[in-house]
């Protein structure tokens, strides 16, 4: 793995940011609908947690496709910027969230000293993303007003969402990507 960024890396990162900015916008619409549906049940905070993993996918995808230091943070930050520029009603706050999400994933690759690009750093990254983002949003979203059972429930749902989207889905995408790369190379 070269530590130098190529033009191809930068273009790919830009494409991922553009693509995931759109995914994040779509997740925002799903969030509004899910939050409205859960509000009468008193479970509106779970809307954010159920969908949270969708908002974190740019970081592990960037880290896997561009195996360079910082690619996860940059990928998530640029996708958050794209979401903001698309007109997200979450506004510029998505940049702060994107930083914590990207940093959490980056810590997963850092834990393997940037030598592994498989499921293990994705798992570490899912844990890092969940812990860092939940710590930030604990204060931002006022989770401290909830009882300990609710806080733990929100944390567990977030972890499951980040694990599903950031580990399971990203691994499936990477398997498909690698299969296509092999087929292309065989021709």
Question: Would you kindly provide a written description of the structure presented here, covering whatever features stand out?
Answer:
With 187 residues, this protein is mainly alpha-helical. It has one domain: Arp2/3 complex 21 kDa subunit ARPC3 (Orthogonal Bundle). Helix content is 76%, strand content 0%. The chain has 7 helices and no strands. The protein has helices spanning 7-38, 45-51, 58-65, 71-86, 93-111, 119-140, 148-186. The longest helix has 39 residues, at 148-186. The chain is globular and about 55 Å long. The protein starts with 6 loop residues before the first helix and ends with a helix. The model has no long low-confidence stretch (mean pLDDT 95).
Radius of gyration: 17 Å
* CATH class group: Mainly Alpha
Question: How many E-type strands?
Answer: 0
Number of domains: 1
Helix share of residues?
over 70%
Largest beta-sheet characterization: none
Fold-level CATH name: Arp2/3 complex 21 kDa subunit ARPC3
Series of H and E elements: HHHHHHH
Q: Whole-number average pLDDT?
A: 95
Which CATH architecture would you pick? Orthogonal Bundle
| Number of H/I helices | 7
Distance between the termini: 25 Å
Low-confidence spans: none
Percent strand: under 5%
Shape: globular
Would you tell me the structural class of the helices and strands? mainly alpha
């Amino acid at each position: 793995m070269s530590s130098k960024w190529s033009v191809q890396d930068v273009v790919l990162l830009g494409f991922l940011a553009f693509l995931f900015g759109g995914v994040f916008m779509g997740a925002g619409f799903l969030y509004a609908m899910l939050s409205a549906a859960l509000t009468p049940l008193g479970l509106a905070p779970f809307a954010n947690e159920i969908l949270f993993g969708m908002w974190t996918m740019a970081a592990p995808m960037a880290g896997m496709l561009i195996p360079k230091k910082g690619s996860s943070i940059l990928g998530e930050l640029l996708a958050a910027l794209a979401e903001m520029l698309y007109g997200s009603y979450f506004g510029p706050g998505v940049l702060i969230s994107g930083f914590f999400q990207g940093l959490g994933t980056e810590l997963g690759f850092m834990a393997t000293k940037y030598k592994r690009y498989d499921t293990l750093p994705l798992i570490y990254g899912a844990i890092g993303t969940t812990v860092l983002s939940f710590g930030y949003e604990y204060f931002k979203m006022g989770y401290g007003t909830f009882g300990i059972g609710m806080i733990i429930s929100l944390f567990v749902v977030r972890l499951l969402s980040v694990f599903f989207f950031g580990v399971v889905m990203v691994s499936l995408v990477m398997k498909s990507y690698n299969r296509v790369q092999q087929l292309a190379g065989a021709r």
